[in-house]
Amino acid sequence: MAGDLTSNSHRRSTRMPTRPRPPSGLSQGRPFAEVLRERRMSKGWTQADLIREMQRVARRQGTSLPTAKSLKAMISRWEQGRHKPDRHNRAILCAVLGLDEKTLTVKER
Fold first, then answer.
1. How many CB atoms lie within 10 A of CB 104?
2. For FRET with 15, which of 4, 49, 76, 78 sits at 20 to 30 Å CA-CA?
């Protein structure tokens, strides 16, 4: 019985917290990944919600984006700090999240 408890304890939850966090000051010196994730969560959005909003803005601007599946992988990498979006995606993120280019391209620690 005790073995059953320990066998499940090694699993990590991959779910994002469901309660939105209030936005704290978006200031210079904060990691891009932290700013992006915090801003998305402050709106109460999942990554899927962010994808839908990015697609909506891209359609309105007459530009294209990768598939939703590709965007999901890209957003995950952006939020984990493994990659940063290119100029086109950064502009769309700024429009969607209500950020300016300077805020979204803060320097890494």
1. 19
2. 4
Residue keyed to tokens 């280019």: 101
Among all chains, which residue has been given the structure tokens 């939105």?
Answer: 20
Nearest to 49 by CA among 108, 96, 109, 2: 96
Residue 102 in tokens: 């300077």
Q: What is the pLDDT of residue 14?
A: 55
Residue among 81, 78, 55, 59 nearest 68 (CA): 55
pLDDT given for residue 32 in this prediction: 85
3-state helix, strand, coil in the chain (%, to 5): 55, 0, 45
Q: What is the average pLDDT value for the chain, to the nearest integer? A: 79
Retrieve residue 34's tokens. Answer: 């932290």
